[in-house]
Amino acid sequence: MKGTTLLLLLLLHMKFILYLSMAIVTSASAAKDSLHPVILIPGSGGNQLEARLTAEYNPSGLFCNRCFPLKKDCDGWFRIWFDPSVLLKPFAKCYNKRMMIYYDPEMDDYHNAPGVETRVSGFGSTQSLLYLDPQIKRATSYMEPLVASLEQAGYASGENLFGAPYDFRYALAAEGHPSKVGSKFLEDLRNLVESSSRSNGGKPVILLSHSLGGLFVLHFLNRNSDSWCQKYVKHFIALSAPWGGTINEMRTFASGNTFGVPLVDPLVVREHQRSSATNLWLMPSPKVFNVTKLRVITPNSSYTVLDIPHFLRDIGFPEGVKPYETRVLPLVENLTSPLVPVTCITGSEVKTPETLIYRDHGFDKRPEIEYGDGDGTVNMVSLLALQSAWNSSNKQILKVIKIPGVTHTSILNDESSLDEIIGEISSINSHISVSVVSRTVS
After folding, report:
1. Percent of the chain with pLDDT over 70
2. pTM of the model
3. Domain spans of the chain?
4. Do strands 368-372 and 302-303 pair parallel, antiparallel, or not at all (unpaired)?
5. Known catalytic membership, residue 408
6. Which of 44, 211, 276, 348 is catalytic?
7. Catalytic: 375?
8. Which CATH number fits the domain 37-440, given the four candidates 3.90.180.10, 3.40.50.1820, 3.30.450.40, 3.90.550.10?
9. Which residue among the candidates 408, 410, 414, 417 is catalytic per the annotation?
10. Are strands 38-41 and 205-210 parallel, antiparallel or unpaired?
């Protein structure tokens, strides 16, 4: 009798454990089912880029022959961004030539250097966004902390968490001007949004961008119909988006910018930085910046944001004037609200270049810098440009969260900013309406 009782108790215990396990699985499955899929759109340089050399390729020197780099796949593809060899001057020159793109006035569009093919691998996956070089993860970590935080919140890469890497050298263009590479990215992004929604029970997606990715997403939303956006897009969260460009970009064009990377000569990388269509897109917008305030000062000239064509000629880059005036200026005038709910999360109270002063040595030397408010890279007036542009709109939902002390890039790994990002996504998944228009994290 006693044995029978023990057996019954054991069976009841096992049944309870089984029931509890099923309840946990069911609960986890239900929680997962309640999540809107998230698509990550990186900033400039925020994903890996691959290249291949063809017979048309003309090496620029001994270090830039077809054998370099040694590590390639069976079809000749290799990772051009990021590769640590660019830190060494001879290889940096090679990298510079291979990364350059060229504007063709007759085609009114950009193309790669002759003999250089490029591609973005893993579209739809988060893999190329995690680390810029998977062999040196710690030094080149990009979105890995953000992805890890999303996974802790219940997201799973490839199921309800996706990535939209792109060739960050190519920009969009104003209406009436071709942009083959940029337009193809928007087409691929649209397909990814639709497939992500379908594979998650028809739930609309959350678009989560960083930096330049925010500009692409805003134009993406405005180039699709309201009915399409309403069906497929739940919310747009923009991190550190330079809506009106940045004064720092004028420094990049004038004297090159290493962004703090050691050993790199800014004059070596300046050539390919000038060629980048997205860098031209990120010039400070006359629509956003105070046009009466001087931004670049030399012994002979002072340039405001209205003088950028003159500035481009004076720094020795006259070929940038036409695409800037025809493709970029009309594009940056358009900060139309997409009627999709938008949350901007940005750093603040970080010293950010505001005025550049070049002395007698010209543009080949680093300027003296006067600083203002921003996130260390983008000026505050640009980070908050949507707030100003959409102030009179009653239909557009816009929430702005400012995090003091967080920089343009640390927003992707700072604990307080990650908490804000995950908290915002949790609110969206819980269908909690936006109740705060703007707030600063204390």
Report:
1. 91
2. 0.92
3. 37-440
4. unpaired
5. yes
6. 211
7. yes
8. 3.40.50.1820
9. 408
10. parallel
